[in-house]
Amino acid sequence: MHSLIFRKFRLSLAPLFLCGIVPAAFSQAQADAGFQRYLIAVEQNNLDLQAQRETVASAQAGVSIAGVRPDPQFTAGIDSKELYGPNKQNTATTTIAGLAITIETADKRRARIRAAESNVRLSDATVGAFRRQLFADSATAYIEACRSSAALKRHETSLQAMREIARANEVRFRTGDIGKLELVQSRVEADRFGTDVVSARADTSAAEMALSVFLGKPYKDVLGEKIDCEFRQDRLAEDERELIRRALENREDVQLAKSSIANARDNIDLAKANRWIDPVVNIGVKNTPKIYPIVDAGGNVVNTPAEHSNSLGLTVTIPIPLSRLQSGELRQAQSALTQAQLQMRSVLLKAETDVRTSFTQYQAASQNVQSYREHVLEDAERLLEGVRLSYRKGASSLLDLLNAQRTADDIYLAYLQAQANLANARIKLQQSAGKRPEI
Q1: Which of 80, 211, 316, 388 has fewest C-beta within 10 Å?
Q2: DSSP of 175-186
Q3: Residue 424: which of 349, 371, 369 has the closest Cα?
Q4: What percent of the chain has pLDDT over 70?
Q5: Using CA atoms, how far apart are residues 181 and 167, in angstroms rounded to an integer?
């Protein structure tokens, strides 16, 4: 009877422990497709990214603003009017109308447009750098959701195993094989494993809700499905030199630094153009009405009659450039270029360092996962199975079995963390080289 109980117990638990060793049967293509769908959804729905894109729209509107020419000024009014007619009987009310046009020199309009267009590229590069960090954060959250989900399954598996032990011990207690104390202890330990499941379930729920933060709405409302989780096992094909070369060409922060330099140079050209003065051409027309003769009592003309008159006036106003004695705006623009160039050097150095560091971390993480898969996991499960067999034969105590179970669980959870570390290292290495992240 005793042997039959544990034989059935062993057969019922075998699939549970096997599922702890063998990952879920998702292909790498399925897993990466699920992750890419999530990234696409983040790119389409993230509220912060949408807000960042508005800066590009604003910069594009700035191109139209930069192309605006100075408005002409129209002037109309009274040039002269005698307020006391009897004093000067020979005067007429003269009206004028004029147009003032500012002539831009040094091709200021083209300089403004070029600076505005480079500002569009700078804004777009800024959005790209923001999107890069957003992908990194959302990928970390996605990996954590996968890790916590797998950890929950392991805790549930261990709980089911302990419940099976408690039920088997009830039969053994009735047959007199174990005492009451060992039966109670097995029930208590099963309850303790139940608390681990509750905590793991809460962690899984929190990790899944964290995904919704990057989507701006609940995950299920956007994708309508469970998370596809499976970490890639193939190694990246590029070597370190190739990754560095790609990083120095394609990284978002490198593109941002290049755009900053181009924008600073265009701003210098604009500052130089703005130092040229702009003359103002004034064209006016003066209208003098006809002056009719005034005759006194003796029939004599006492004023000087005149016919109607229109006259054209043309003047050019040239500002005296005393304000150009200082060159503060030019020095500011040149300083911004120097800062951008220094920042570019710093970004290039950082990009190369990031690739080298990320490559080393990726290799270490890959070796750790490989070690778990080839040795540690199998040895831990084999040890657990041996202790279970020994407990069935009465050669090991319940405490030995519990220690073996917890050790196997801790090792498997460490393996899940190693997988998560490898996925994060893979994404960091890809992003450090300017590639779109894949898991």
Answers
A1: 316
A2: TTSS-HHHHHHH
A3: 369
A4: 90
A5: 14
